[in-house]
């Protein structure tokens, strides 16, 4: 219940362009249904860095890997992601500005992915 409530609030924030949230638009592997999931992304020259807070088992991530692509809404603009690639932990944390980088370090986050747009 908390997850659904938070997702509704953060989805609205991402759509409005306010706050740190972005949206990943992906298609369900089995259902074929289109979903939008709020995430926090960091912009890099090659595209965006995503931190996998809940690991590789989350549906949005499994869906984009299966499809090999997705769309992301960042600051009110949609971007096509053409590849999903591993990202070293240090480079992933470095992509996020302070204080997010500090929080990721303290929480020992180490699973990052490059969502390549270029």
Question: What's this entry about, in short?
Answer:
The protein has helices spanning 2-16, 59-67, 89-95, 100-106; strands spanning 21-27, 34-44, 47-51, 70-74, 77-81, 83-87, 112-116. With 118 residues, the chain is α+β, with helices and mostly antiparallel strands.
Looking at this protein, list some descriptive labels:
single chain, seven-stranded antiparallel sheet, Pnp Oxidase, Chain A, alpha+beta
Describe the overall structure.
This protein has 118 residues and is of the alpha+beta class. The protein has a single domain, classed as Pnp Oxidase, Chain A (Roll). The chain has four helices and seven strands. The longest helix has 15 residues, at 2-16. The protein is globular, with a radius of gyration of 14 Å.
**Secondary-structure element series:** HEEEHEEEHHE
Give the neighbour order of strands across the main sheet: 5-4-1-2-3-7-6
What is the CATH superfamily label?
Electron Transport, Fmn-binding Protein, Chain A
Average pLDDT metric? 89
Task: Classify the helix fraction into a percent range.
Answer: 25-40%
Shape: globular
How many DSSP-defined strands? 7
CATH overall fold name = Pnp Oxidase, Chain A
The structure class reads alpha+beta
Please state roughly what percent of the residues sit in beta strands, choosing from under 5%, 5-15%, 15-25%, 25-35%, 35-45% or over 45%.
35-45%
Largest β sheet strand count, sense and barrel closure: 7 strands, antiparallel
Radius of gyration: 14 Å
Q: Which class in CATH terms? A: Mainly Beta
CATH architecture classification? Roll
- Unreliable stretches covering 5 or more consecutive residues: none
Number of helices: 4
Whole-number tally of structural domains: 1
Tell me which oligomeric state these chains represent: single chain
